[in-house]
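Quarterly update from the structural biology core.
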Amino acid sequence: MLREIRLINYKAFLCERIKLEPITVFIGSNGSGKSSVASALYALSTIIRLGLLAAFPEGFFSFWNLRNFEPLDCGYKYPPIGIGISGDIDGMAVDYDILFTRDDNSQTGFYINYEGIKVQNGESTYHYVAGKHPDIDFDLPTEGTQNWLPSINDHPQRECIFTALADLDTKDAFQQSLRRIKKYVQMMSRYQFLASAARMPCERYDGTGRPPFLKPDGSNLAEVVQYLQEEKRGRLVELKDWLRKYAEGGNKIVDIGVATYEDKVFMNFFEEGKRKGSFEVRGPLVSDGYWVFTAFACLACSPTLPSTAFFEEPESHLHPHKLPILREVFDSMVARDENPCQVLISSHSPYFLDLFKESPQSVIFLRNGKTTRLSDLPDYDKVLSLYSLGEAWYSNVFSWGNPL
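Predicted structure, tokenized:
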């Protein structure tokens, strides 16, 4: 699980360290930085997996307009951006930071001002640092005496350390640690399920026994359900239980299934009949809320969960009275004994925020690139004795992250 993300000169964030919980909710107005947290995690994942150029292709991100640090203090003509994480990854305590900017004169296209990594694996500790960073408001956990791997180039005009795995001895314990970190971040994902995408027929499950990974927009929902139907019947029963629970008090959706046509597969819903039995409800007649919730429940029932999942506005299309069930779905993902998932959420909904009144350490307000945790606000418990959490936020009682 990730315990912290550090953002330096990244979009709205000048210098911020954000503590993370098993479930963390980011709430704030438009432009406050909620999506920037998600994009930073995705960018760092891409840097570790594929390198800087894949994460920041030419024209994707403007480095030239960044003026939050004095360039001369950074060792290069342009100030850098920085992203860092700390966490418990596959049984290891890991800290990693990288600060960099674009460099047209470099073969890699980048200039790395600072890179540091610290890995504690059992009784073994690996700590490597190269370069320097500008003065910031906090100490980086990767800081230390300049010490770099002799087999890897430490010139600033290079790629990150993870791209140099081939230069290390394959039996080297540190290399194995880097590979485990790389595998962990490869399983990080960002989701925004769309009913229009989930409704569409998709490619059929290939029958290999390898579980398909639910796509970020839910566009292969039918494929994943077909996999559960053919390979993991117990998980399919669990999914149907979630849908029946969601259907209580409304249309009595009692079952789901899949049908195939040529090389495509699509989903069917079944509603309880007035007398007995059930009848099929065609996909276009099923509400957007059912489709979106089915995607959430299907992900929670999948054999393979992402290591970290960032959900953007998961309350979209769902009735406020059904949001407590969505919270239960997220709780089930975190509580899995095998392959648990850390859940990060951005939201605009005071109704969804109300579900975290008893978890103030899990709520982070954002405003103008600054963050504060609900549990760190003065007298937050007194405020919550008078207001619901969503009402207090929406009415600007806290003066933090409100939508006004």
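The longest strand covers residues 110-121.
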